[in-house]
Amino acid sequence: MKRALVISGGGAKGAFAGGIAQFLLENATSPYNLFLGTSTGSLLVSHLALGRIDEIQQVFTHVNQKQIFDNNPFYIYERKGIKKIKIHHLNILKNFLRGKKTFGDSRALRRLIAKELPLTYFNALKSEGPEVVVSVSNLTLNRTEFKHLKNCSYDDFLDWIWISCNYVPFMSLTVKNKYEYADGGLGCVVAIEEAIRQGAKHIDAIVLTTEKQQSNRLRSRNAFDALTTTFEFMAEQIENQNVEIGRLKARENDCQLRLFFTPRVLTTNSLVFETKQMKSWWQEGYEFAAGQVDKDI
């Protein structure tokens, strides 16, 4: 029976997904044959497929804005103990003067991916590892595409991981093979349907939002707030559709589907990467998965 692990997008909340995935991998009765990630999920799946859990935990929970952005379109400040973001007008102006099409430039993340996913890891997955797939959004052709590691060259697959994470308009818009590409979450946040299409009969899907809305968003304070709120709203609608279609397809194809939502609202700003918080989320995700699997049994 083909088994799949699917991880949704969710920015810094990917640390919570990492904790869930760690528990599932360490306690799996059978190995996963397919790992499929979108956006932040695409950063996790290759290491998880290799069983390099401690390594990806260290990298993911210590990443910061400087390792993601060459030109950061916002800055982080703290008010009453809560991290918030504000638009960085000067950096955005710099990006436009350089002829860029987005507010920020995230090429630093591409370099980080190359550093942490060396050619030896890629070759190990290509020769004998489980299938690893990442989703990207082809804006030119108006479609979501799923890129299989085994069908890619090393450099191409690193590009696809990076592109899957590029949350336009805040991160880089990329032209590859003459098409414009952006974050996979713009088309498919959690790729349950694709896992079923690939023949999976057991799917564990990690969805980095609560199953039901637990809080209302605060009113936007400025244009940057309004933009991020709008994109978060759109992502949640796509995610809800992905989950409902996934449930329907699972029933139609006699596929066992386990969904792992976050038990609470982890953050209202998933673009803030803070080490202490992400370490805590990783551990919380591990403990949450342990409780959920016990309940399922």
Q: How would you summarize this macromolecular structure in one to three sentences?
A:
This protein is an alpha/beta fold. 46% of the residues lie in helices and 19% in strands.
Key terms for this structure?
about 300 residues, alpha/beta, eight-stranded mixed beta sheet, two-stranded antiparallel ribbon, 10 strands
Structural features, described:
The protein is an alpha/beta fold. It is built from eleven helices and ten strands. The strands form two sheets. Strands 1, 2, 5, 6, 7, 8, 9 and 10 form an eight-stranded mixed β-sheet that branches. Strands 3-4 form a two-stranded antiparallel ribbon. Helix 1 packs across helix 11, helix 3 packs across helix 11 and helix 6 packs across helix 8. It starts with a strand and ends with a helix.
Helical content class: 40-55%
The overall pLDDT, averaged over residues, is 92
Pattern of helices and strands: EHEHHHEEHHHEEHEEHEHEH
Please mark out the parts with pLDDT under 50 across 5 or more consecutive residues, or reply none.
Answer: none
The total of helices stands at 11
Count of individual beta strands = 10
Q: What structural class is derived from the secondary structure elements?
A: alpha/beta
Rough outline: globular
Topology:
Blueprint: E1 3-7, H1 14-26, E2 34-38, H2 40-50, H3 53-62, H4 65-68, E3 74-79, E4 82-87, H5 89-97, H6 107-116, H7 119-128, E5 131-138, E6 143-148, H8 154-165, E7 174-176, E8 179-183, H9 192-197, E9 202-207, H10 223-252, E10 256-261, H11 275-296
Parallel strand pairs: 1-2, 1-9, 2-5, 9-10
Antiparallel strand pairs: 3-4, 5-6, 5-8, 7-8
Helix pairs in contact: 1-2, 1-3, 1-11, 2-3, 2-7, 3-11, 6-8
